[in-house]
Each structure stands twice: as structure tokens, then as C-alpha cells.
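target protein:
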Amino acid sequence: MKEDELLFSDEYFMREALRMAQQAYHRGEIPVGAVVVAQQRIIARGFNQTELLNDCTAHAELIAYTAASGGLASKYLGECTLYVTLEPCVMCAGALFWAQLGRLVYGASDDKRGYHLTGKNILHPRTSVTKGILEKECSELLSNFFKEMRERKAKS
């Protein structure tokens, strides 16, 4: 394996997505982060901003996708990989279908709202999927966030 392949591994890019999720966490948003990679370079970043923007569609994946599309001047991301800390919901998976995303890599599965719950692959047929990258770290960040929210709610 070449040195750049080790440096720019799935774990490397997922750690970058985790950094974005931590930004969401510190802003009181559900801690989900995403990065879009093309040719071993991060071309876009995003984190959940539904509270900040008062917009239920302001998910990390869509923010990163919009930035990547603008940067590439293309609505298609066939040569790109999206790294996201949590399995995309149906809405985000639908957007990724239309973007013809080349590859999706996610950390934690979402057993309540993940796209897999549809029972069908709703991603583009050419999109390859890798799941479970840094799953423990991604899951722990989400668990800690929701635990803190419940504790705050119990105190008030």
C-alpha cells in the first residue's frame, strides 16, 4: 500500500467528518458531520444545522453536497465519496441518488431513521457503500449528546 493510501484512508476522512460532528455538538445540534472527497482531497464539509438555520433539511450531508456541487460546478458527484458519521436518512439518501454519488461511507447505523429501513437500496445503482468506519466513535458522540439532552431536560 502506498503512503498516501495509508494517510488518506477511510478512517482519515471519517475523522474529518467526526471533527465536523463535534462542531455540531458544541453548537447544540445533533452531532452529525460530513465531508465530500474527490481525488483524495476534501472539497466540502458540513454538519447538522437544523436548529441554527431553523430548517429541517439542513442535514450535514445536504450541506456538504451543496458545497461540493457549487465547488465542482456540477450537480453530479459520481467521482466523489461522501463520508458521514451517521447513516443518511431517507431524505438525504434520495438527494444522494439524484447526485449520482460515487461512494458513500458512514460510521454509525441509524436504527430509527436510516435509509436502510425502507428495505430497498434507494441510493443510485452505481453508488458503493461502506459502513461501520469508526462506528464506535461516531455512536459514542451521538449517545453522549442525547444523554446530556435528557439530563438537561430532567433538571428543568
Notes: The CA atoms of residues 69 and 75 lie 5 Å apart. The two ends are 54 Å apart (CA to CA). The longest strand covers residues 41-47. The beta strands are 33-38, 41-47, 80-86, 103-108, 128-131.
